[in-house]
Design a protein that fits this description.
With 285 residues, the protein is an alpha/beta fold. The protein is 38% helix and 19% strand. It is built from eleven helices and twelve strands. Strand 8 (153-157), helix 7 and strand 9 (179-183) form a beta-alpha-beta unit.
């Protein structure tokens, strides 16, 4: 069966080095698709994020089938859409836009991407007490995913305690089974010793934000550690976690699964997530 060509883009600031285009196009080729995926780096083209509505119009006019949307446009794009899926509505953030015949619909594949990656990479992990580090857009998606995974007590920690408080309140309102509270960064020394796991959702550890988000002496063998940073795949935090005897989950799991879910939304074809994972790791190597 011959499919019509697909044209997909990634919109955001600093997206030039993204691995997503190569990941999508390789999977497209594996399915015999004519699949072109381009980056639209707002910094490179000198377009303000606030013009995301115009970008959607241009993309649709130019024949794009879909756009992936990343920082800082995940919230800004929402008023320009006709509809949202449940995950995007709950998070107030969109990372995938599909251009239909008469409707433009926004989706969020971050939360299900984390859920699938977590189940795959940390099977059987205790999720009674978990610390979520970072209350931004990624933290919100991961927070929802963790509570859907059955976390009973979630402590949301951010350098901006007000932001952590807002997210904790929102998560609690949508997940009545759990206790969700906000905490300051300097409380990690109290929180981590009694926690089962910690998920890191800040930029610390990325190639252009090197470092470790908290004192490595707080790591202990009873703690699992998940990092959503995936460039590099082996962050300073994960290296320290393994040295401390912790089970660990790298950001490649979430990156691959949110991309595979987006691929299926765009094409209607279920990708081979294992193949995408192998390709991702060869690229990220």
């Amino acid at each position: 069966m011959v499919h019509s060509p697909y044209l997909v883009g990634l919109v955001g600031q600093g997206v030039g080095p993204s691995l997503t285009p190569a990941l999508h196009m390789a999977e497209g080729r594996a399915h015999g698709l004519d699949y072109v995926y381009r980056t639209i780096d707002l910094n490179a083209v000198g377009v303000a994020p606030q013009r995301i509505g115009e970008i959607l119009e241009w993309a649709r006019t130019l024949g794009y089938d879909a756009l992936n949307v990343t920082h800082p446009c995940k919230q800004l794009v929402i008023p320009h859409l006709d509809d949202l899926d449940d995950a995007a509505a709950a998070l107030g953030a969109v990372n995938t836009v599909i251009f239909g015949d008469d409707r433009v619909v926004g989706y969020n594949t971050d939360a299900p991407g984390f859920t699938t990656g977590f189940t795959e990479g940390l099977p059987g992990a205790d999720v009674t007490n978990v610390v979520l580090l970072g209350a931004g857009g990624a933290g919100a998606a991961v927070g929802h995913a963790l509570l859907d995974l059955g976390v009973e007590h979630l402590a949301v920690v951010d350098v901006d305690v007000d932001r952590a408080t807002v997210l904790a309140r929102d998560l609690a309102s949508r997940h009545s089974h759990a206790r969700v509270d906000a905490s300051a960064f300097d409380k990690l020394s109290v929180l981590l010793p009694g926690s089962d796991g910690v998920v890191h959702c800040t930029p610390t550890g990325m190639a252009d934000h090197p470092g470790i988000p908290f004192d490595a002496t707080l790591l202990h063998p009873g703690l699992w550690v998940a990092d959503i940073v995936y460039r590099p795949v082996n962050t300073a935090l994960l290296t320290a976690a393994r040295a401390a005897g912790c089970r660990s989950l790298d950001g490649g799991h979430m990156a691959v699964h949110q991309a595979s879910i987006a691929f299926e939304l765009i094409t209607g074809i279920a990708p081979d997530a294992d193949r995408m994972s192998r390709h991702f790791r060869s690229l990220a190597g």
